[in-house]
Amino acid sequence: MIAKHVPMRSLGKSDFAGLVNYVTDAQSKDHRLGQVQITNCDAVSVQDAITEVLATQHTNTRAKGDKTYHLIVSFRAGEQPSADTLRAIEERICAGLGYGEHQRVSAVHNDTDNLHIHIAINKIHPTRNTMHEPYYSHRALAELCTTLEHDYGLERDNHEPRQRGAEGRAADMERHAGVESLVGWIKRECLDEIKGAQSWQELHQVMRDNGLELRERANGLVIEAGDGTMVKASTLARDLSKPKLEARLGPFEASPERHTRTKAKRQYQKDPIRLRVNTVELYARYKAQQQTLTATRGQALEQARRRKDRLVEAAKRSGRLRRATIKVIGENGANKKLLYAQASKALRDEIQAINKQYQQDRQALYESHSRRTWADWLKKEATHGNAEALTALRAREAAQGLKGNTIQGRGDPRPGHAPVTDNITKKGTIIFRAGLTAVRDDGDKLQVSREATREGLQEALRLAMERYGSRITVNGTTQFQAQIIRAAVDSQLPITFADPALESRRLALLKKENTHERPDRTERADQRPAEHRGRAGRGAGGPGQRTAAHDDAARPVAIARAGIGRPGRGRADAAGVHAGAVHRKPDIGRIGRVPPPQSQHRLRTLSQLGVVRIAGGSEVLLPRDVPRHLEQQGTQPDHQLRRGISRPGTGVAAAPPGLTAADKYIAEREAKRSKGFDIPKHARYTAGDGALAFQGVRNIEGQALALLKRGDEVMVMPIDQATARRLSRIAVGEAVTITPKGSIKTSKGRSR
Known about the structure:
Blueprint: E1 2-5, H1 16-23, E2 33-39, H2 46-58, E3 68-74, H3 83-96, E4 104-109, E5 116-122, H4 137-152, H5 165-177, H6 182-189, H7 191-196, H8 200-209, E6 212-217, E7 220-225, E8 230-232, H9 233-236, H10 242-249, H11 280-291, H12 293-328, H13 333-368, H14 374-383, H15 387-394, E9 406-410, E10 420-424, E11 430-434, E12 437-441, E13 446-448, H16 454-467, E14 471-475, H17 478-491, E15 496-497, H18 500-514, H19 530-536, H20 555-562, E16 610-612, E17 620-622, H21 657-674, E18 681-684, E19 692-700, E20 703-710, E21 713-719, H22 721-727, E22 735-738, E23 744-746
Parallel strand pairs: 14-15, 18-21
Antiparallel strand pairs: 1-3, 2-4, 3-5, 4-5, 6-7, 7-8, 9-13, 9-14, 10-11, 11-12, 12-13, 16-17, 19-20, 19-22, 20-21, 22-23
């Protein structure tokens, strides 16, 4: 774990609101933003907390320094502490720096290879209004990190900075931009020759051979490259400072050939750092795009401006036509004045909308045509599907591969569906979306997030098989391995585990699932007591007898004893049940077999039967097509015969697909609302008082959902696709009503 303070280079950039908006911005990524926490503020939402902090900062008018403290806490690759651990670490670090009582907003980010926390702290105390600046914060942070690693069992890291000043900044540039720095180039190419020079003349000759120049600047020495890049000599090594060199070589002597050009053996250029692959063509393409970037952006901006001017002129022409029409109509002065005012307002609103759209287009053009570093350009190209750029990112020295709970495949890949890419890191790690789970792919193995769901683990196994092969290697904790085995059995994928122990457990569990015997369900009918046999042998549909539809109290016993109440446990010789009344279903299985997932907790046979009333008779159950002479044609499910079944280790009957999709969407919106997002409360649609306003249609896993706003709450209602297509023609905010039959009726009187 590493904690680092990020200072602002100017007071103009010390913007608490801008920092918090950045750290809490999801940037259209599902798995970038994690837990958001507001501390020591009375506000609940993020925007209210920003307002409160800015008000506190304005109470101190004497402080001239930076009033915002930006802290980053980063964990080693593969480490995924729990939410409680992250909260505790954040509190202890802030308290250790003296900010325990200060206002702050923190956010967890998951969009890089290292899980990290951004903490925006208000340096102004909320009650004393004094500004606190930690003393030697880098030492305090190093001690805090060491203690926290020991207390929470985290992987130990080196907290003492190995590089300081310009040397450290040069290393950061190489790591983040992917371009070789002058400091790094000299250290790799000619530092030993420079140190070995025994006179000023020899030292200047070494410099000329490498395209460098040593000269005085202020009270020290600098080394300048041919492109004008300079670095202090003492940054390369302490032995190259001016006092040390003069103590060894005598008083400084300038180069006699300073203004003459000599051919150098080698020369520094801002080229990419050496990778394990050839990137010459990619870098040439990158340089060409950077050179033409300004011209391309200017052309795009000019086109956007012309488009805006055409729209404004068209709006003005329409406004003039409207005013001319008002002039010729036979209305009195008061009405004409009102019509002129409405026309002016309409024109003003239309021009404002055009200008707003133009500003958005300009912002998008500046973002898409902005200058990028070499590593950022590779990331952008890889995001757009450039395989060469992705390979170059993965060939960087910083890309060490994924650690932690990982899945690796070997064999023949089986290409399947293309997963949705959420982000690509600078190390070439692709982050996929698998429901609520983040799956990372580094080109060799997959890593699953800590809070992985069963669906996420199944998706990870499917991706590993499709991308790398069906022979799976699992690394990680024992709990993770057990979850992977369970997911492999549930998904029924044609995979095998490389570890013999895991494979044997998978086969045993798979065999147990297919041939699971339950002793309490295997007794034969001839071994039951006589009263049970007699009760089971009674007719289930004869005249004058009560059926399950008539007697709810006898329903569980009658249905269970008849062998049709539990899926997969019916007997062909059940006495008193007519062969036509209980027709055979496919894949019923023998006694003791566990039913398939789609048949859990429901009446396998009765749920598909129609109920028809015949004049002069009672209700009967029809197993097949209803004859034409009956009152109602076709079979329909009788939901009154359904009942929830609770048994050890299981829940009640599953909800219909529409309500399941609605609950999933509601849970996602409520989760974001709890994190401080400005989202109204979402709930299932229920009949009640209050006007309803149409808010749009959403599609969740193929199920269409209508959003209806009642007061401050958004009601979610499942609808079919035909209704969704018709609702797409309704404007957002239009008033609607719900008929007793569940149809959506607009204000114009048309049901949808």
